[in-house]
Write a structure and sequence with these properties.
This is IF3M factor. By secondary structure, the chain is an alpha/beta fold. The protein has helices spanning 35-44, 66-82, 101-116, and strands at residues 19-23, 29-34, 48-53, 60-64, 90-96, 120-126. It has 2 domains: 19-82, Translation initiation factor 3 (IF-3), N-terminal domain (Ubiquitin-like (UB roll)), CATH 3.10.20; 90-126, Translation Initiation Factor IF3 (2-Layer Sandwich).
Length: 129
């Protein structure tokens, strides 16, 4: 099983593809070019080539400054924190605002049990007619 590559990071000079689609640091497409041309451009402007989309044909790389790379890594880290983690079970409970006292107590106990088991609990209350 091949090792999974980091989702985002500085690539440097080890580029396995001969032809790349290059985007400059302002987000404008520079078109498809040979790996050597992209490396020369990277050196001229003192930037780094970063892989954006590997499964595109040809793979998409972007020229970025160190600051841009850092900001993008922070943005992706925040996004990853916000998304629910795999393995975390989310339970959802829905009931009416006209729920009987006994039913409410039962559902409250159920919610407490789920929270003890470290489940994420989502409660929806519908307004009674």
């Amino acid at each position: 099983e091949p090792k999974k590559k980091a989702a985002f990071g500085s690539v440097g000079r080890r580029i396995p593809y001969r032809i790349l689609h290059v985007i400059n640091q302002d987000g404008e497409s520079l078109g498809n070019m040979h790996r050597a041309e992209a490396l020369k451009l990277m050196d001229q402007h003192d930037l780094k080539l970063v892989l954006l989309r590997e499964n595109a044909e040809p793979p998409v790389y972007r020229l970025m400054t160190g600051q841009q790379i850092h900001e993008e890594q922070l943005r992706r880290a925040e996004k990853k924190k916000a998304s629910p983690k795999p393995g975390v079970v989310q339970k959802e409970l829905s009931f009416s605002s006209a729920i009987a006292k006994n039913d409410l107590e039962t559902k409250t106990k159920q919610i407490a049990q789920w929270i003890e088991k470290k489940y994420h609990v989502k409660v929806t209350i519908r307004q009674a007619k």
